[in-house]
Amino acid sequence: IASPHRGEEAVSPNGSDISGLELRLPLWSVVPSALVDQLSLPLTGQDSILEPLCFPERPACSCSAVGVQSGGAELLVCLFCSESVPTQQKDALLRHLLLEHKLVIADVKLIADLAKYLLYWKGRFMEQSLTDFCSVIKTNSTGPVEKQEEYFLLCDVLPEDRLFREKLQQKRLEEVLEQQQREREDSSFHRLCMFCSEEFTGNRSSMLNHMAREHSFSIGLPDNIVYCDQFLDTLQDKLDNLQCLYCEKTFRDKTTLKDHMRKKAHRRINANNHEYDRFYVINYLELGKTWEEVQSEDDRELVEDEDDDWSDWRAHPLSAVCLFCEHQSETMEQIYTHMKESHGFDLHRLKTELNLKFYQQVKLVNFIRRQIHQSRCYGCQQAFDCRADVLRHLEAEGHMMALPEASAWDQPQYYFPTYENDALLCTLSDSEEDETDTTEHSEDVPVIAEDISNLRDIRQSSVLDQLLRSRASCS
């Protein structure tokens, strides 16, 4: 986990010292879901953003991996009070922990059994102080004491937390493998095909292979699937509701739906729908990895003797979104030029004039994103009804480059991205001061060119030659 710079308000729990680390990655890149599940870290009052924000034009980052959790009837208990909710209302409890107790649990989606996880830490918090386990992030650290708030981060940087998460994951994997083995050996399977109503009895593989062979509909090898009956029930419910399994559009009748799926070759499931993740064993194998990541590893060439040819490899273009509008560009120079020419906002100039370091740029971008999202002028704090009104005000009043005092935006809470898939944050760099240090230093040292026009004279007058002559005369 990357901490703020030394001197910032970040306190590490015993056994997980993070305050001394100064990584070149921002905080969210190592704890991607620490606040994605519950926040962009809220400020006090109406400045709170509790839902995870994403730019609609792009999918969420793959680093926010979706874990697999069961939807049992267990209650989720609060770690500090008597509050409890059903498993299906997980978000309500997480919001309660955040607002009432200032606690954030990192990577909630990767916890195999959240109910047992909460019970475990409820007991541990009764035995020891919260700060023995959690990192502390203080908001408004440069402001008055009465306006400062402390938030607590519980994450797997703490060895005890990591070990317990792995224990839950291992137990879940054992349960899943046992369930899969029972389904493999089960001979009491009985179901109708979803497409032709042909009846199948015996083992589930007969029906799955039939759908793949006769209807070109494959959900994978039978041995890779677990909770097969629930999986087929889920697919059947979608078809009964006249919904395409791939594009998930709804149609007026079954005939239209079947023609659509046949003509569009949509007789397959939507791989981006994580509702299906818990039906594939691959999602239970490694803590913190989704089936896409594991599958990608399986596809790699592992032969060490062969030279890989990367000549035809092309990187996926990084698309960044403007701070003020929905314009996107695939190169950073284009997005910086767009903001300068279209909105009069020069990020390069601000970085140079204010000598902004890397983390200061991160906080400034997140601050501006938050203000624009909440339809507020970041220069004078005037609130408006919509983003368009804010932009008109910024341009009319000349507030585009009018930043408030650094104390307003140079705060630890702005380490966390307002938009979790903000590619602009990945392109920031340190101030040009670091780049010019070497040049300025070299300019202070005179460089004297050696006159080598007469090499013979140089050899005769060299110190080494004199030492050799002296030694020869002594001997």
UniProtKB/TrEMBL annotation:
<dbReference type="InterPro" id="IPR013087">
    <property type="entry name" value="Znf_C2H2_type"/>
</dbReference>
<dbReference type="InterPro" id="IPR041661">
    <property type="entry name" value="ZN622/Rei1/Reh1_Znf-C2H2"/>
</dbReference>
<dbReference type="Pfam" id="PF12756">
    <property type="entry name" value="zf-C2H2_2"/>
</dbReference>
<comment type="similarity">
    <text>Belongs to the ZNF277 family.</text>
</comment>
<keyword id="KW-0862">Zinc</keyword>
<dbReference type="GO" id="GO:0008270">
    <property type="term" value="F:zinc ion binding"/>
</dbReference>
<dbReference type="InterPro" id="IPR036236">
    <property type="entry name" value="Znf_C2H2_sf"/>
</dbReference>
<feature type="domain" description="C2H2-type">
    <location>
        <begin position="242"/>
        <end position="271"/>
    </location>
</feature>
<keyword id="KW-0863">Zinc-finger</keyword>
<dbReference type="InterPro" id="IPR040048">
    <property type="entry name" value="ZNF277"/>
</dbReference>
<keyword id="KW-0479">Metal-binding</keyword>
<protein>
    <submittedName>
        <fullName>Zinc finger protein 277</fullName>
    </submittedName>
</protein>
